[in-house]
Amino acid sequence: YRKNHVAASIRPELAALCMELASPWLKENARVLDPFCGAGTMLIERNYRAHADTLYGVDVYGPAVAGARENAETARMPIHYINRDFRDFTHEYLFDEIVTNFPTKGKNMNGHDLEALYEKFFGRLEQLLCSGGFVLLYTQDRTFVKRQLKKNPAVRLLREWPMGGQEESWLCALRYEPQLCTEMMERI
User: Fold this and answer.
1) 3-state secondary structure string, the chain?
2) Across residues 8-30, what is the average pLDDT?
């Protein structure tokens, strides 16, 4: 299915491994969002692992979105792709899952910008994800994830796996539980 990719695209076999590791938390007929979809590999592999009801991919890079549309067509999967910055993305309903290969430092993003993106991502979970929702995050910046977990008590780390490779990369399985915040505040 993968006719198109961009330099930052996750390899299909790695995306498939991510979904296999996360399979205990993937929900059949879920509404799934990838806010940094690139060429759509994570969404396609997510749907191969457990059928999703609705799949949405958002990316700021237009050529990647165009490639993702062609990849989804080749895979014969109805995936909705939107060329937009996830920080401006809204939807009429909340998603059950977010699966994503998070952006990394590079020529277009320094460490400060990337940390701000993580902060925005974690801050937007309440606008994107239903209570009890699942996040599968592939990252090369685990430190930023750990910092955000400390700042966001509504997000709980379920499990993490070192993924190796040239860069130190990690797969993090997270649960969004805003009721935990409410319960904690009520105890104080």
Assistant:
1) CCCCCCCCCCCHHHHHHHHHHHHHHCCCCEEEEECCCCCCHHHHHHHHHCCEEEEEEEECCHHHHHHHHHHHHHHCCCEEEEECCHHHCCCCCCEEEEEEECCCCECCECHHHHHHHHHHHHHHHHHHEEEEEEEEEEECCHHHHHHHHHHCCCEEEEEEEEEECCCCEEEEEEEECHHHHHHHHHHC
2) 95
